[in-house]
Design brief:
8-stranded parallel beta barrel; alpha/beta; Enzyme I, Chain A, domain 2; 46% helix; 4 domains; binds phosphoenolpyruvate; Glucose Oxidase, domain 1; 758 residues; binds magnesium ion; 22 strands; Beta-Lactamase
């Protein structure tokens, strides 16, 4: 059973397009279950119905045409109940709805299971049989299992909007929405430019060529060089390899013969496909065929074809890389875009960035935020290859990408982009004004930094110091640990740029989703693993170098504060303080005249919330990292799109935890700040201010918006709002209520883009 399942799933995943995938699915499931009919109905949101999309056993003319309302017939029943419906005689069920066009008259036994993805019904899979009989438990289990496995394929097609295109009788394609995670806030419209890693066949896009013979010429050149490469390899390997492996090279050379694979590639080029796309298609077809074979030896040959394809592709790309032209308004697209890839593109042309993988803390996302480029990461359903050169909208506020936008939708986004620009321009006048409420209550607004580029953007916006300098970022952009002197120079630049304001330097916070290529940490469960302070306490040689560099860098400026990440117990805080003290004594002995800096801890795990008082007794300040705190309190991975909707910093547990920490710090007379994303959201920032937080530290792009919000309210108003929401027990309700109240108070403009087109 398992083997059959594996085969079906693999075959379906390898199908050339969604239509063939659905057909295959119906065919293979019918065969595997020995039934007479297997059909797949998919939910069409636009028309609020289920459409028969594939069938093995019903009339083919009905496919793509027959549909049922969402509550109609047995299909509607399966969808409504979200569970299998297993009937020995469908005809006698009161909900049975006869569809004459399908020719289902003779089929009595009916088993339908919902195709579910992320809690939503995408469709219904049905098997039917002539006999009056009930499908048994194992048959039901099989269909449920296969439908669960295949739901991702269907979800992908659903999300990419390709499913119902052919049924759309309107004036073109329907808008398609692809959800990811916000990488950098902002909206942008531009044309997709696919950046793909070299020699990765799967990420080669479709492109049309006009000059066929020129393209064939490119292919020929690439083939000549690949043949040379294979011969070289064969020669080098000749001494050490056995005859069987040697034969592999001959096979490669035969496949490269102009009458073999290349002939098929050329045929596709003649149809207008560029050489890389044609090569991809030919290799894909052969790989699929080999993978389908029962003989394990022949199945293995798929790998050879793939490898050969990669080699030819590498040669083709080495020719084309030189003339890549970036349009004026480009949206960079890629599975993963590395920071160096980003740097190759002229900044003034980049409107937005979208990746299908990656996380908010990927190196590229950090750079994008520093450059203020609207970015969406992890939009995993985005069909990259079809997006090249297409008009795309990036909604970095919500973490969403839109393709085939209708003129109205596009207009809405153009409006948002204009509003954002004018809002920002209007906010500039606030630069030197204090962040204080109408009734004179002040709060400090600081910035989160990491790269050098952050400095100027922060100063332009009037930041009152740095609440979080993520020191891991300069570590991440190198290929080895930076030396003490290298670190001193980098830190000095930060400290000098913001002096006399304080700069809060967080000690190295790696692990979790932040990795150093030269210090790999491989764990099953990295967010619960070796992260933050745990790593540095285990590596005094790394920790001490960093501390000494920080201390030395602050000489004469005296604006350094040191902050410890991921503290879960007083022991860790004390151990770290011990190292700080030791480093301080050492640098003083070396002749540096430096006062002992303030030392604080981050409150970002539930344990430290409950230890806040004890920690506050030992350190000079607390800083609440709401990104991790929300993640750990709600048990929601902050980079997992699947559970993104559960990640809510307005959850009562999060709000009450923050209130508790602020109270505990106050009891000890210690300052408390917030440096997670929450601090940079105007609405949340007001609640934090009402809680009594002393400083808010955020991405420079948000600073003036937060300041504007603070300057438009009275303390009594936000305190009342806070007390109201603290009495509520539902995060969604809290968030909606806060938005409503602030909107009524005239702050709608500042909040609008957070809930764009919800
Ligand atoms: C946080 O967890 O809220 C935080 C500011 O740290 P980081 O996002 O760097 O983990
Ligand atoms: Mg953190």
């Amino acid at each position: 059973m398992l083997e059959t399942l594996r085969r079906i799933v693999q075959e379906v995943n390898n199908a050339a397009d969604i239509r063939s995938a659905l057909d295959l699915m119906a065919k293979r499931v019918r065969d595997a279950m020995g039934t007479e009919v297997c059909s797949i109905y998919l939910r069409n949101e636009e028309d609020q119905c289920y459409v028969l999309m594939a069938s093995e056993g019903l009339k083919q003319e009905a496919v793509g045409h027959v549909s049922l309302g969402l509550a109609e017939g047995l299909i509607g029943q399966v969808g409504l109940r979200e569970e299998p419906v297993n009937l020995e005689d469908a005809f006698s069920h009161p909900k049975f709805h006869y569809l004459a066009e399908t020719g289902e008259d003779p089929f009595h036994a009916f088993l339908g299971v919902p195709v579910m993805h992320h809690g939503k019904v995408l469709g219904v899979m049905v098997v039917q049989q002539r006999d009056v009989r009930r499908f048994d438990q194992s048959e039901e289990a099989f269909l449920v299992t296969i439908s669960a496995q295949l739901s991702a394929v269907i979800a992908h097609a659903h999300a990419s909007g390709v499913l119902f295109d052919q049924l759309d009788t309107g004036d073109g394609l329907l808008p398609s929405f692809y959800d990811g995670l916000p990488g950098c806030p902002g909206a942008a419209i531009g044309y997709g430019v696919l950046l793909f890693p070299e020699a990765d066949l799967a990420s080669v896009p479709d492109r049309h060529v006009e000059d066929i013979s020129d393209e064939i010429g490119r292919l020929d050149d690439a083939l000549v060089r690949t043949r040379h490469e294979v011969r070289d390899l064969a020669e080098r390997a000749s001494k050490s390899l056995g005859t069987e492996e040697q034969a592999l090279f001959d096979v490669y050379l035969r496949m490269l013969d102009r009458h073999a694979l290349p002939a098929e590639v050329i045929a596709l080029i003649r149809e207008g496909q560029w050489a890389q796309g044609a090569l991809r298609d030919v290799v894909d077809t052969h790989v699929r065929n080999f993978e389908m074979m029962d003989d394990p030896y022949l199945r293995e040959r798929a790998a050879d074809v793939r490898d050969l394809g990669r080699r030819v592709l590498a040669q083709l790309q080495s020719q084309s890389r030189r003339h890549i032209v970036f349009p004026e308004e480009c949206i960079l697209l890629g599975e993963d875009i590395s920071a160096p890839m980003l740097m190759e593109v002229p900044r003034e042309r980049i409107r937005g960035i979208v990746t299908t993988r990656g996380s908010r803390n990927s190196h590229m996302a950090i750079v994008a935020r520093a450059m203020g480029i609207p970015t969406v990461v992890g939009a995993q359903n985005l069909p990259l290859k079809q997006m090249d050169d297409k008009e795309i909208i990036v909604d970095g506020f919500r973490g969403r990408v839109v393709a085939n936008a209708s003129p109205e939708l596009k207009k809405q986004f153009e409006e948002i982009i204009r509003e954002e620009a004018s809002l920002q321009a209007g906010l500039e006048k606030l630069r030197d004004l204090p962040a204080q409420t109408e009734d004179g209550n002040r709060i400090q607004l600081q910035v989160n930094t990491g790269l050098m580029t952050d400095i100027s953007r922060s100063l332009e916006r009037g930041a009152e110091g740095v609440g979080l300098y993520r020191t891991e970022i300069p570590f991440m952009v190198r290929d080895r640990f930076p030396s003490e002197e290298e670190q001193r120079v980098i830190y000095r630049e930060q400290l000098a740029a913001f002096a006399p304001h304080m700069v809060t330097m967080r000690t190295l916070d790696v692990g979790g989703d932040k990795s150093l290529s030269y210090f790999p940490i491989e764990e099953e469960n990295p967010f619960l693993g070796w992260r933050g302070i745990r790593v540095t306490l285990d590596h005094p040689e790394i920790f001490m170098v960093q501390l000494r560099a920080m201390l030395k860098a602050s000489e004469g400026l005296n604006n350094l504060r040191i902050m410890l990440p991921m503290i879960t117990s007083v022991i860790e805080a004390e151990d770290a303080q011990h190292f700080i003290h030791r480093a301080w004594l050492e640098v003083r002995e070396e002749g540096f005249d430096i006062p002992m800096p303030e030392v604080g801890v981050m409150i970002e795990v539930p344990a430290s919330v409950y230890q806040a008082r004890a920690l506050a007794q030992r350190v000079d300040f607390l800083s609440i990292g709401t990104n991790d705190l929300t993640q750990y309190l709600l048990a929601v991975d902050r980079n997992n799109r699947q559970v993104a909707s559960l990640y809510n910093s307005y959850h009562p547990a999060v709000l009450h935890a923050i209130v508790h920490v602020v109270e505990q710090a106050r009891e000890e007379g210690k300052k408390v700040s917030v440096c997670g994303e929450m601090a940079g959201e105007p609405a949340a920032a007001l609640l934090l201010m009402a809680m009594g937080v002393d400083a808010l530290s955020m991405n420079a792009s948000n600073l003036l918006k937060v300041k504007a919000a603070i300057r438009q309210v009275k303390m009594c108003f936000i305190r009342k709002l806070l007390s109201e929401v603290l009495a509520m027990d539902n995060g969604e309700v809290i968030s909606a209520y806060v938005d409503l109240q602030l909107d009524k108070a005239g702050l709608g403009d500042l909040l609008r883009n957070r809930k764009v087109l919800a």
